[in-house]
C-alpha cells in the first residue's frame, strides 16, 4: 500500500494485475486500483476533479483529467473516508500512476490540490 497526506487529506492506494486483454490486434495489461481518501483535517472538503499521469515502461504517457472520480464528487466531513476502485490498461507489463485531486475546503472556500503518490503497476512475475 502507498500512502501520502496533503493538507490533512490522506490518500491510500493498492493496485492489482487483472490479466491481459486483446483489442485491435494489441495485447493490453489490465490493472485495477483501489483508493481511499480520508479527511484527517478539521474542515469539511469536497473532491471536485482529478488528474492522472499514467506511465508504462515503453515511455508512453497518458493524461486523464475530469470532474470527480467514478462519476462522483464526494463530500468528506472530518474523520470521514471515501473508497473507490477503477482500472487502467497498459501496453507493457510495468508502469506507474500519479496525479492529484482538486478539492475545496467548505470553511474557507479555498481550492487546493491533494497529491496522489506514485504507485506501481506490475504483473506478479516482475517481482522476482
From TrEMBL:
This is Co2+/Mg2+ efflux protein ApaG. Residues 3-128 form the ApaG domain. It comes from the Bacteria. Coiled coil: none annotated. Pfam families: DUF525 (PF04379). PANTHER family: F-BOX ONLY PROTEIN 3 (PTHR14289), POLYMERASE DELTA-INTERACTING PROTEIN 2 (PTHR14289:SF16). It comes from Lutimonas vermicola.
